[in-house]
Amino acid sequence: MNEEEKKSKTEKIAAEILQMSKNKLLVNMRFMDMSLNRINPSPRPDITACTACDGESYVYDPVHILTAYKVEENVPIRNFLHSVFHCVFKHFFINTLIDQELWDLACDIAVESAINDLNLPYLNILRAGEQMQFFENIKKKINIVSAEKIYNYLLEKHLPPSTVEKLSVLFKGDEHLLWYMTEDEKAGLGLGLQGASPTSISSLERISMLAESWGGIALRMQTELEAFGKRQGTEAGLLTQNLKEINRERYNYTEFLKKFAVRGEIMKINVDEFDYNYYTYGLKLYENMPLIEPLEYKDVKRIRDFVIAIDTSGSTSGELVQTFVQKTYNVLKSTESFFTKINLHIIQCDAAIQEDVKITTQEEFDRYLNNMELHGMGGTDFRPVFSYVNSLVDIGEFENLKGLIYFTDGFGSFPAKKPPYDAAFVFIEDEMKGAGFNNYDVPSWAIKMVLRKDEI
Hints:
By secondary structure, this protein is an alpha/beta fold.
């Protein structure tokens, strides 16, 4: 058999092994049909001596596939799933500021741990035991086992290069070189997005299209995973956790807060409607006599009356509360947020009203923050705040109250009726439970936002 025939046979057997792996996964993990069919393997030993995938292209060295299968037959199917999980978790979406080596390791740890957690015999390999031993150690420090959390953990640990290298070998299932290539580099290799010329789109557009595509796949996987878990007798816990983390809606608290802005008319030149041509022409023709006076009034969003309610039960930390108030303050005092004079009430409450501080100027706000102390630390009841604010409305304390934001990280009793103003509850997600498990129920008239500490 000559070299050409040997190469052709090697490619054929490697392709059969990968197709067999794909079919086995499809039969046993039906919830992954979209993700498995999204990837089309192709032999490209000129690109990698292993396997590599970027969410679109899956390239491999046929010799590597055969060698791995000969040594341990479960390795090719596990490595193929490893690459698919990278795509589902959108690990190819790279932040240019990251430590590339640690990010690669964090992604591999997240993926391999999710595979081990499935506890499926045809995915078991010899090094899985050592992987799980390492994972058990870090799981005690990481509440949500995602690549981002693992990456931050590794950064804080300051692991020596030798340890990082050892762990990289232990958890490696593929190469990530395609993640870091530009579109021009991929085009030079004949790689590109399905149905599009590689040179017709930018790297950012390509990543955005891939992220949207895989986001839809991840969402479908999440909805179908429970049925799979019941059939297989496994909870698929880490896979579920990663999917919920990926599918979790990210909130912008700044934009959220602006929804509570109250319209008010202030004296200000409306540059959008003012025509400078006539104005300057009049000044030139008649010296100090403009032809058209500037429009002095513009309707802008300004906040005059506002209430911040703070849950001071024992479960809310003072540092987190101050960060929340500071964040709210920064948004309120930003461009076109405050009237010159404001009427802001900051109310502390646990099961009863503990403090009400009225703020009318930015100077008073600064002074309050510098001397802020929490009072209460009892149980949680939301009703006293609404009763108190309603009484303030009745006596004319507010000119036009439209917004109340209640900051809490616990559960409490809500008023039976809708108040005559918008009310939002900002909950702090319990990371011990993980994404998707913080099911805070609020009345139909209330707006709910669940934030993480790093989103405040």
